[in-house]
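Tokens in:
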């Protein structure tokens, strides 16, 4: 009769599968992480140069004044309805939606009026949208 307890060996922990899982998770997170956010609305800021000015490309310029009224290439739009604005843009731009689309908005213009112009431009397929600004004077 053996009264001494049997010596049990310590369990062997294999770390290889654990390391494999950690590396797979690391690769997954590296691939799925967004490093740079792209903006949907692209704004082209004016650039100055000493070179000769290239011939200007025809643009569609929509101006929004402080009262929220629309002007397309300096021609006033009859009312503030988005359908009227859309028809007026089609009249001035035709089917060419590759032209640059400029929104000149007064600093006190209603935000909704500017968003409406951007929405109509997006519906018509304009992708070269810019909103010019003026540099703030240092006081």
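Residues out:
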């Amino acid at each position: 009769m053996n009264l001494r307890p049997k010596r049990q060996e310590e369990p062997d922990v294999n770390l290889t599968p654990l390391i494999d899982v950690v590396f797979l998770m690391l690769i997954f997170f590296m691939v799925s992480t967004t490093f740079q956010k792209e903006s949907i609305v692209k704004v082209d800021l004016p650039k100055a140069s000493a070179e000769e000015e290239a011939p200007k490309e025809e643009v569609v310029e929509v101006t929004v004044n402080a009262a929220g009224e629309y002007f397309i290439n300096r021609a006033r739009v009859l009312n503030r309805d988005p359908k009227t604005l859309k028809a007026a843009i089609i009249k001035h731009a035709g089917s060419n939606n590759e032209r640059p689309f400029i929104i000149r908005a007064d600093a006190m213009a209603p935000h909704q009026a500017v968003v409406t112009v951007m929405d109509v431009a997006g519906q018509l397929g304009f992708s070269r949208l810019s909103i010019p600004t003026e540099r703030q004077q240092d006081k």
